[in-house]
Amino acid sequence: MFKTDNQNMKNILYWIVKIFIPNLILAVFIFGLLAYTENIKNSTYYLLLGGMLIYFFSRLYFYYYKLGFFLWTNLKNLQQIVAEFKKGKFILNESEISVRDNVSQVLKELLTVGKQFESIVSSQSDELKKFHEIYSHIICSINSHFIVIDKNEKILYVNESFCKKFSIEGDKVIGKGLSSVFYFVNTRLKMGISQVIKNGENDSSVLKNVHLMSVNRKSIISDLKISSMNLKGEEQIVIIIDDITDRFSKDYHASILSHLSETMGVENETETTFYNILTGVTSGSGLGFNRAMLFMVENDALQGKMAVGPDSFEEAIEIWNSLSSADIDVTVQYPIEIKRGSLLKKVQSYRVSLSDDNIFTQAIKNMERIHIRNSGSDTRVSEDIRNFMEVDEFLIMPMISFQKTIGIIVADNKYNMTGISVQSIDLLSIFCFQSAFLIESYLNLIEVKK
Q1: pTM score
Q2: Extended strands (E) in 127-264
Q3: Out of 21, 97, 119, 445, which residue is the most buried by the measure of CB atoms under 10 Å away?
């Protein structure tokens, strides 16, 4: 503060010496000259004195006017430059600054530096935009389904592939929990997330063959990779979901058929054989149908033999959740886990002569698959079949062995109401063909033993 006051005093003295002292000396000289001149009249004396005063004050006025205009103009430019800097802009119209003094020259140089700074920032901004576009393109085009959550399991991001797969709108689930996406959060998924959160950024978890079902009842079998990353000091969990449903279904069917081949020849295993075939149709690890029913041809009649499926949607969720919480041998666990309720009783009580003309017997006689999309409006579906199925869409697949139909498998998605895809139909067709061959061989072997 003391140094500033001294500097201001020096500035004041400088301007006094520069302006007032020369004028004072000039005034004293003129007045001294007039004092020694006796011939000058009083009126002339006063005119000279008035002229000197006018000259003095005029000079003082214009000098300070010029100085004030100079300071006001440059101060305005400085304020504008500072304001633009605060906005992230580093350039100013140079035409507003004329180089007439040292301060203006400094302003010009400052603008030159600002231009260079603007060029650097602009180039970096363009690079950042390019990297952002590349990053967004990679994330949005990735084949796997991609979801990011925070440590409280709140959703931060989902990619387009994820939204399409599970039929959700990404904007509506941001900030919500996983339960807003999945009908039930798989136990293994919960444990994997907890493990990664606990171990931090240096850990990741890979989960195989996890059953996931969305709130829109889209069901898949997937491999999951769970990892952690730190962004701006906040821990985020990245979950990459790889849909392996088709591949896993084929592998699962192969294991089912292999298991059936190993158990062939045991007379009291007929029911278990039928049961295991249907688990390949209904389990999430298999084709994932909600219900499956097996009807066999016996003495010119079609007899219900086996059924697998829950009696309610709540029971279906309970089964899917428990069975997908670990890698288990479904062929062993299903008979224990799934209650054989009213569906099995209804199927086993069903018997119709092949001479009757309904959609089940047509599939037998014509050796053709039948896909009913709307049983209420499809004229091929009789009232008794409509009441028996109690569902709009279902699929009838013949089991053909040695050019003969030995039975049919009827499958539907009564509880999750998912449409039956062409791919599911083709897979079931292959599975039924292989199963029919094994069942035919198995029944012939038992008949020979008798």
Answers
A1: 0.54
A2: 145-150, 155-158, 182-184, 204-214, 219-231, 234-243
A3: 97
